[in-house]
Amino acid sequence: MADPNFRTAAALALIADDMREVDHVIAARLHSSVPLVGQVARYIISAGGKRLRPALLLLASGALGYRGRQRYNLAAVVEFIHTATLLHDDVVDESVLRRGRATANESFGNPASVLVGDFLYSRAFQMMVETDDMRVMQVLADATNVIAEGEVQQLINTHDASLDEAGYLEVIRSKTAKLFEASARLAAILAGSGTEMERACAEYGQALGTAFQVIDDVLDYDGDAQEMGKSLGDDLREGKVTLPLIIAMERGSEAERQLLRSVIETGSTGELGAVLEIVRRTGALDATREAAAAQARIAIDAARALPSNSYAEALLQLAAQLLERRA
């Protein structure tokens, strides 16, 4: 079986020069007269990550033949919005580790993390106004609003053992997939590709983002903690009811359901070993991977509507690698 990380690297190599241009934009637009703003923002952005949202915008732009520099500006915008959500998420979740190092809130404190997250949101909106395109602004404003609603809904769902698959999917389609969707949609808008192509790009982005998050939730119970840069069971500690737990609750015995309900409601990781055993024994991980695979196949089908070229092929590879992701 092909290494999924190799596939991702091959897809991203196609836009390596473009990503360097985006990095230049990010560095320039992080400037602030308040030193702490730039310090915190650079800290979290320099932590790395796959940069999938800007990459998606750049790949879709390439597939649709758009070569204007505005793609660099908007790729930086979606990365700023994503980074702002990470800063706020880590405060809400009381996280201490992200991508293998201390979170910004652990290093600089909660107030600085929240306020710099606000700075990144506002800077992103300054940059999107510079496009002088109401459609672009509408897509990004709507996406940011939906993401915020998803964050609040996830907070409401915390420690709720009655959450079902539909409620779970509603949150991740808002909280995670919406920015993927917007990133791909923006490429079609920049390229002037028309309504049908915009719809295909949006469908690809939403399905890819959903699959990505579902697999991420699998890895919280079945991943390599060192490779992921976080501890196994973090979702459980934070009271997040994800699909592996939902399926295990449906398939487990009454005693197993009682145990899972208890740990969900308390957020205790003292029974993590028992929880992992239940999740694996009930086949919840395989079922969750299949749910992610179904979304990846939707993304692949949507990508086939794009012109046939190396960029479209890279988008297909990104969706295919989610079928094999392990970190």
Automatic annotation (TrEMBL):
Its EC number is 2.5.1.90. Keywords: Magnesium, Metal-binding, Transferase. InterPro entries: Isoprenoid_synthase_dom_sf, Polyprenyl_synt, Polyprenyl_synt_CS. It is an enzyme of class 2 (transferase). The keyword NADP does not apply. Pfam families: polyprenyl_synt. It catalyses: 5 isopentenyl diphosphate + (2E,6E)-farnesyl diphosphate = all-trans-octaprenyl diphosphate + 5 diphosphate. One of its GO terms (molecular function) is all-trans-octaprenyl-diphosphate synthase activity. One of its GO terms (biological process) is isoprenoid biosynthetic process. Its cofactor is Mg(2+). The keyword Magnesium applies. Supplies octaprenyl diphosphate, the precursor for the side chain of the isoprenoid quinones ubiquinone and menaquinone. Belongs to the FPP/GGPP synthase family. This is Octaprenyl diphosphate synthase. It comes from Melaminivora alkalimesophila.
